[in-house]
Amino acid sequence: MAGSGTAHMRAEAGPVLAVDDMVVEFPVGRHQVVHAVSGLNIDLLPGETLGILGESGCGKSSAGRAIMQEPAPTAGSVLFAGEQLTGLKSRDLRRKRSKMQMIMQDPVSSLNPRRKVRDLVAEGLRIWGFDGDDMDAAIRETLTAVGLDPDSVWDRRPHELSGGQCQRVCIARALMMNPDVLICDEPVSALDVSVQAQILNLLERTKETYDLSMIFIAHDVSVVKNISDRVMVLYLGKTCEVLPSSDMHTRSVHPYTRTLIASIPGGEELASVDDPVTGPVVVDTPLVATATELPSPLNPPSGCRFRTRCPLATELCAAEEPQLREVGAGHFVACHHVAVS
Amino acid sequence: MNERDDLVLDVRDVRTTFLTPRGPVRAVDGVSMSLRAGETLGIVGESGSGKSVLGRTVMGLVSNSPTTTITGECRIAGLDVHALKPKDRRKLWGPEVAMVFQDPMTSLNPVKRVGTHLTEALRLHLGVSRKEADERAVDLLRQVFIPEPVRRMKQYPHELSGGMRQRVVIAMALACDPKLLIADEPTTALDVTVQKQILDLLATLAADRNMATILISHDLGAVEGRTDRVAVMYAGRTVETSQTSRVFNAPVHPYAEALLASIPRIDDAPHTVLRAIDGSPPNMLNPPEGCRFAPRCRFAVDRCHQESPELRELADGTADTHLGACHFPLLPARQEVS
């Protein structure tokens, strides 16, 4: 979306997390409102990784935080493990939410600089009153699982660790709560290139061993493709396209997704290569990278929000908001100008 | 000597050492490079590799002081930047060399209009009249593809988007028609779709003006395809340098090879296990003996931990030069085995 709709929601299976028509708005004074997320629908199946892709200002972080109810969304509902999180009393919410953990972008500032690694990792469980002899063993086990040597980091503080090690501590903190869902908000963008691969591999591995479902929020197309099963592309708080990540560079059709792919190195050539087996879903989507920049989320464009930068935009796009439509197996697009094959 | 005279930039064995309360840090440790007019050099490396300090040392923004020691030569237009008096050094900034920094918001003065930023440099260095400076400034904004340049002149930096601000910074750098432009992570603070526009703009401007460019970046993708040559830095040293396509297609240094292999590619299948480099870059207060990459290198043997490899010629005859600093470089035969 740069339109709306629920076509991409899978009716059949029981999702571990379901977000229904979520709206996140922030009042900024003078009766103005930032429309961060406008009508987002997400379903996350057990064991699945959903990648949320978009530039800054597209609402991807606001969406992640609203799922965690910090702050709660302006409207819409979040159903987690069969229970509505929106509207829960704060006490019940905290209990429920402990099974949903978040990994933040900057690993150093998300750790208390005055605490030692062992206390940082144990913090979650201590809050819930677990403590005792087996605690140390549990911390050691989790530290080992995230690739840290418990003996060498045990008494260290965050400033004595590298960025990658801090991110591992953050992951260990989350895993201690034995979560069902992990929400990662740009977990590798503050890290060095050589360390980024370590953390991506680690997340992939822990997802398997701990039986997690994951929402992975990032701006890097290749990173999102690597880790996700499905990818949702957001633009100014609306969904543009939802597709299996394996189809990302060969079959994506929304002009914004194409623009994102064209802006990665080698993406221009890649984007124009037709899939030899299936062929492209649509052939008439030009790959013009749009020259103008993101409109203000205070006053988003009418109709399709991408139309001000879109090479295909017509009057219809200003008048009417496109709905998500199915264009292939598990592939949904919100654009008036993409033909359904 | 004649050969060196037509170089826009000639850097020989430069070392930059900072004295810190916890000991000396040699951020740049013996780097040499040269650039001709119109040539583009990419410097890639992770944070702490010394790439930014190198850029600032070359420019003379980092200079000898009680806490900073610089040895070696940085010649711009034939003049050794660090042997000049500060006043003379400043005369190089603008007409000879200019720099574009990472964060466009902090490179602009928030209480000055866009126009003032540009006319200031023009009037100071070129001594043109106010009216002519205004005209030239509008023209510069037009050259960096800022729409409605006349109106933009009167705006303040906060009224512009990140991409527009970076265009203004580039226009400022170009104001005195420099022969060398150093761009230090010019797009890191920008969105992906805007990044491409800015990098393309820099490439176009450099080609139009036959300007030498140094593009410093941690983003290998930004450098690939936009530079003639590339130097890969690790822990203050150049570990590999050659034509960009050669470094990207047939790296000889295990670090360069591993760095390229660790990046997810868009045409890989989802859930492809990435080949990560173990460990993290060294602490520069106490860098490892011998080859600095040895503790993380999968090919390292005892010799690597003891003896520091020199940067040497490793070309196989198909390239002009391909320098690598490794005792056991990855030559084609070896890559097939690994």
Short recap of the structure:
Chain A is α/β, with parallel strands linked by helices. Chain A contains twelve helices and twelve strands. Chain A has helices at 60-67, 90-97, 117-127, 133-145, 150-153, 163-176, 193-209, 221-227, 248-251, 255-262, 267-272, 315-319; strands spanning 17-27, 33-44, 49-53, 75-80, 83-84, 100-103, 181-185, 213-218, 230-235, 238-244, 325-328, 331-333.
Describe the structure.
- The complex is a heterodimer of chains A (341) and B (338).
- Chain A is α/β, with parallel strands linked by helices and 341 residues long.
- Chain A has a domain at 1-99 and 216-341: Rossmann fold (3-Layer(aba) Sandwich), CATH 3.40.50.300.
- Helices cover 31% and strands 21% of the residues of chain A.
- Chain A is built from twelve helices and twelve strands.
- In chain A, strands 6-7-8-3-9-10-12-11 form an eight-stranded mixed beta sheet, sandwiched between helices.
- In chain A, strand 4 and strand 5 form a beta hairpin.
- The two termini of chain A are 19 Å apart.
- The relative contact order of chain A is 0.17.
- Residues 271-289 of chain A have low confidence and may be disordered.
- Chain B has 14 helices and twelve strands.
- Chain B has an eight-stranded mixed beta sheet, with helices on both faces. A four-stranded antiparallel beta sheet of chain B has the order 2-1-4-5, with helices on one face.
- Chain B folds into two domains: 2-227, P-loop containing nucleotide triphosphate hydrolases (Rossmann fold), CATH 3.40.50.300; 252-264 and 271-337, no CATH class.
- In chain B, 34% of the residues lie in helices and 22% in strands.
- Chain B has helices at residues 2-5, 51-59, 86-92, 104-107, 114-126, 130-143, 149-153, 162-174, 192-209, 220-223, 244-249, 254-261, 302-306, 332-337; strands at residues 9-20, 23-35, 40-44, 68-76, 79-80, 97-100, 180-184, 212-217, 229-234, 237-243, 312-313, 322-324.
- Chain B is of the alpha/beta class and 338 residues long.
- In chain B, helix 6 packs across helix 8 (162-174) and helix 8 runs parallel beside helix 9 (192-209).
- Chain A binds chain B through residues 55-56, 162-165, 192-198, 200-201, 204, 219-223, 225-229, 245-246, 248-249, 259-267, 270, 289-291, 293-294, and chain B through 46-47, 145, 161, 163-164, 191-197, 218-222, 224-225, 258-259, 262-278, 280-281.
